């Protein structure tokens, strides 16, 4: 429709896929269109975020409509919120239903930073957000560990998957985000990333890939496992 095309043009958003949901005109639509809880709007005010960034305008509605997605947007363009907000909205309330969402990061530093951001965005809710630390890998009885959102590197998560005893159960994960996904698919991490993706075997899982570059091979690999994914690109496709 005309309005969607105009907005996308204005913000340099390129999309491909079937029935791509309308981009957000403002953060207020999170409430008027999607009925988000007020703590989320309150946290935007506290963070000082007035307008959604282009990637947030398009990726949030895509994920909220239950679609899988590939998103490419420059570094510093607000990709973290673009995947964390829909995740918080979809998970709705804290629950003790095993591990419900996973965010994979290619380095421990990025995982730590993502957890900090995530906690700020979830402030005022009861969500349990956990970072996979070395101690957790070594000591936890994963038969008893639950959390709403787990943030980890592929290496640490794979160690927990391949434990002989007390191993982690990812079969109930409803949302899986691969952040800086091009790095997760590089040779050195590919096998570990792949085993995490396979362990997240819930048939109704929603997966998404976020990165600053989207090499063709990454998209090709991902397309083989993703269902009816939407591709969202902000800026130049080949940048
Ligand atoms: P990326 O993952 O795309 O590199 P980040 O998610 O790390 O980017 O965000 C970069 C910076 O932009 C962070 O400091 C974040 O707090 C800020 N930011 C995110 N969304 C907004 C927004 N809508 N308005 C203003 N600043 C934002
Ligand atoms: Mg990022």
UniProtKB/TrEMBL annotation:
Domain Helicase ATP-binding: start-end pairs: 60-232
Q: Which domain of life is it from?
A: Eukaryota
Q: Where is this motif: Q motif?
A: 29-57
All copies of domain DEAD-box RNA helicase Q, residue ranges: 29-57
UniProt record similarity statement: Belongs to the DEAD box helicase family. DDX52/ROK1 subfamily.
Name by which UniProt lists this protein: RNA helicase
- Write the span of the intact protein that is present: 106 to 344 of 532
């Amino acid at each position: 429709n005309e309005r969607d095309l105009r907005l996308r043009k204005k913000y340099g958003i390129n999309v491909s896929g079937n029935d791509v949901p309308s981009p957000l005109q403002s953060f207020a639509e999170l409430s008027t269109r999607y009925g988000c809880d007020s703590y989320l709007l309150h946290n935007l005010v506290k963070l000082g975020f007035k307008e959604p960034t282009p990637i947030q305008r398009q990726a949030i509605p895509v994920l909220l409509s239950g679609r899988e997605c590939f998103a490419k947007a420059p570094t510093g363009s607000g990709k973290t919120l673009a995947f964390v907000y829909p995740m918080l909205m979809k998970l709705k309330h804290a629950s003790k239903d095993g591990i419900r969402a996973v965010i994979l990061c290619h380095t421990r530093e990025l995982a730590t930073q993502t957890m900090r951001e995530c906690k700020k965005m979830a402030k005022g809710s009861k969500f349990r957000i956990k970072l996979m630390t070395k101690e957790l890998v070594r000591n936890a009885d994963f038969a008893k560990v639950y959390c709403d959102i787990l943030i980890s590197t592929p290496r640490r998560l794979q160690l927990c998957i391949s434990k002989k005893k007390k191993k982690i159960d990812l079969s109930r994960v409803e949302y899986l985000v691969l952040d800086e996904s091009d790095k997760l698919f590089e040779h050195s991490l590919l096998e570990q990333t792949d085993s995490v993706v396979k362990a997240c075997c819930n048939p109704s899982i929603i997966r998404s890939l976020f990165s600053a570059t989207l090499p063709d091979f990454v998209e090709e690999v991902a397309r083989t496992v993703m269902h009816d994914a939407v591709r969202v690109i902000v800026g130049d496709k080949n940048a």
